[in-house]
Structure formats: structure tokens, C-alpha cells
Specification:
Blueprint: E1 7-11, H1 21-35, E2 39-45, E3 65-69, E4 72-77, H2 88-105, E5 113-117, H3 121-134, E6 138-142, H4 148-152, H5 160-175, E7 178-181, H6 184-192, E8 200-202, H7 219-225, E9 231-236, H8 246-257, E10 263-268, H9 274-283, E11 289-293, H10 300-305, E12 309-313, H11 327-333, E13 338-341, H12 345-352, E14 356-358, H13 364-376, H14 378-395, H15 398-415
Parallel strand pairs: 1-2, 1-5, 2-4, 5-6, 6-7, 7-8, 9-10, 9-12, 10-11, 12-13, 13-14
Antiparallel strand pairs: 3-4
Helix pairs in contact: 1-15, 2-3, 8-13, 11-14
Amino acid sequence: MPAPYMRILFLTHYFPPEGNAPASRTYETCKRWVRDGHEVVVITGVPSAPEGVVYDGYRRRLAPQRERMDDIEVIRVWSYVAPNKGILRRILNFVSFMVSATIVGLFVRRPDVLIATSPQFFCGWAGVLLSRLRRLPFVLEIRDLWPDSIIAVEALKEGLLIRLVYRLEAWMYAAADHIVTVGEGYRAELLAKGAAPDKVTVVPNGIDAEVFYPLEPDPALQRELGLEKRFVCSYLGTIGMACGLRVVLDAARILRERGVDDVVFLLVGDGAARQDLEAQARAEGLDAVRFLGRQPKSRVPPLLALSNVALVHLKREPLFSTVLPSKIFEAAAMERPILLGVEGHAAKLIKDHDMGLCFEPENAEQLVAALGRLRADPELRRRLGENGRQLVTKSFNRDSLARQFLVLLGSVVDRSSGEQVSPGPVSR
């Protein structure tokens, strides 16, 4: 049964044309809600992630900038623009967005429900402030546990500031009418932090089956990138502090010492760690490691199609055992076996469904050993890839996940005091 018509206001720090996982999840979900007949307004910033450079076609202006994207009304507000590295400038970026989003949100036609998503933490607080000022039902989406994640990558040390942020985190969870998170690991962490069990729902990341499906490698793209007759292990996503991708350089060094010259590590994306990693690879002459930089989202499927194996990796930190990286689903949908350097829930998923091989995070020797198994056994790669696609198309399809989220929003609106769902159509 379709959910009653709703006007939905969504606050998000990231949105297309930014191509990171938070931007993609929000856009893909909102697009489906609009397709089902609901009205969606997104408040976001001018696209600049991860380099802190405003994308072509956009300008930094104090006045809100409006556009429509697949019938989603997008309002872009001013914020201090900063790259995804360094603490002070990033905090200014986060806080300025919180202030701008809150102010602009006061003048948007009254919605039935308000959603704010992390990252970033202060986007969640924009939701808290706006929901209180306008007395709106408030759903908080948690994609990243903050400040735990910045402590895990040693961006900030324990101290007075962190204790203050932990207090703000607790208040934010308490202020939400409901919390949506992306995996059971995060749900367990939220419950440990004091969230009520009936207040937290898991809506995992997923895939668009019309975009990610098995493709044959494009010979022209292979030639362009010099990947003919190469065994390609690709990593597609943010190259940030949490990713621990120095392990790739260590693995490339081991392979060179062993005389293995047909393996290429393809690192596609940008982030705070990319510049240093690329400089080190160049200095050491690690030609097996190729950096392509940030690519348009439309180029992700062709690049995955060139890959024999998809690498998913995070630093070896207890917090990251709760994470279920979205890049797993895209690669699996294209029948690419997963080479996983993440412990906990992600490793359990890979092992339970026989869709890849796991190795200890930051352990280059184990990475090389698992890669060697996959390189030597095409039948193993085929089986793992088929198993992965079968799982994600059945259980992690964005169409069904968006509907699940929508039903939840309807129940939150129904429970809110004194507010009724807006009358209107359920289809267009």
C-alpha cells in the first residue's frame, strides 16, 4: 500500500553532482520518493567535495540558489568552502552550513516531516534546530558515528572539545523522533549510546539495478588506461584518512619484489589522503598503483567492468567493524568479487554469502595472498561474483529500501502530535 502523500524536507551536507556515498544515497532515495508522488525539497551546499573547490556551473553566493533535479527541488545555501582535510576549516564548513540550512529552512513551505543526515554531525544539528523552531517531526539519519570516527582516524584527540561534542551527540539523538541508520553495527552502537530500541531502524545502503549490472569490459577504455592483459584490482571511492590505503602501496611493493608485473591497483577517487599516497607511489616508482582522481558517477560502472576484483578497505579500528561500506553493493551488483579489508559486520556479510575474500585490515601480506588466490582462479572469481549479485539484487535494491524508508516516515508523521499528513496525490 503506498504511503499517503507527504511533503518532505531533507537536509544534507552532500548532494550531486558530488559523487560520494552520502550524496548518492540521498539523491537516489529522494528521486524514488518523488517518483511515487511525494514532494521533496533538499537543502544542501554548493558542491565542492572533496577538494574544497566549487564545481563548474556553480557559484558561492549568500542568496540561496535553486534548481530542480529529477523533480527534486534543490536549494543550495552558502557555507564556508573547505577541502576534506584539516580540522579548523572543516569545522567552519560544517558549522556555517548548519547556520545557513537552519535559516533557509525557516522559509520553506511547511513540510510534513524533516530529515537530516550525517555526515556531517552539524547537519544533524541543523535538523534539531529547525525541527524545534518549526515544530516538525524529525528523523535523523546516521551514516557515520561522530565524533567516534574522527577519533578513530586521529583527526582529534580526547579532550574538552571531544567531551562537548559527545554531549551534543547525545542531545541530538534524544531530540530526534526517530533515527535511521545504515547497518546493524551502527544500530548496536546507537543503542549502547542510549537510544531507545524502538526509536532506531536500519535502512541499509543499496544499489540501482538499472545502473549497476554485469558489463563486458570496454576495450577502448582498457587501451586508454593501459590495462590490456592486466589483472585489475580497483578501489572506487573516497581516498580519505579512514581508508588506510597505504596498504595498497605496501602490497604493490611486495608484488614488485616477487616479480609479479601483471597486477594493477586502480585507485579512483579523491580525498585527504590521495595527494600523499600518490606522491609516495611516484617517489618509489610503484607503477602498479594508478590514481585516476575523481570521476563522474556515470564512469563508475565502466571502470568496475574493467576490474577483476574490487577492493574495499578501512583502517583497523574497532569502530569500523560496525561499518557496511556502500561500495560493496555496487561492485557485487556487477558480479565483481570483493577483496575485503574490513572486520566485523562487513566481513560477516562477505563470508556468509560467499561473495569475496577477507583479509586483516592494513595487512599487505594477507592482501597479496588473497589477491593471488583470486588471480589464479577464474572459476572462484565467477562464483563469488554471481553470489554477490544474487544477494544485492534481492536484499539491497534501492527501490524497496526507499519504500521501506517512506513507510517509516509516514508512521513518524502519524505519531507526531497535532499534525496531519498533507492531502494530495500519491502518484503523478
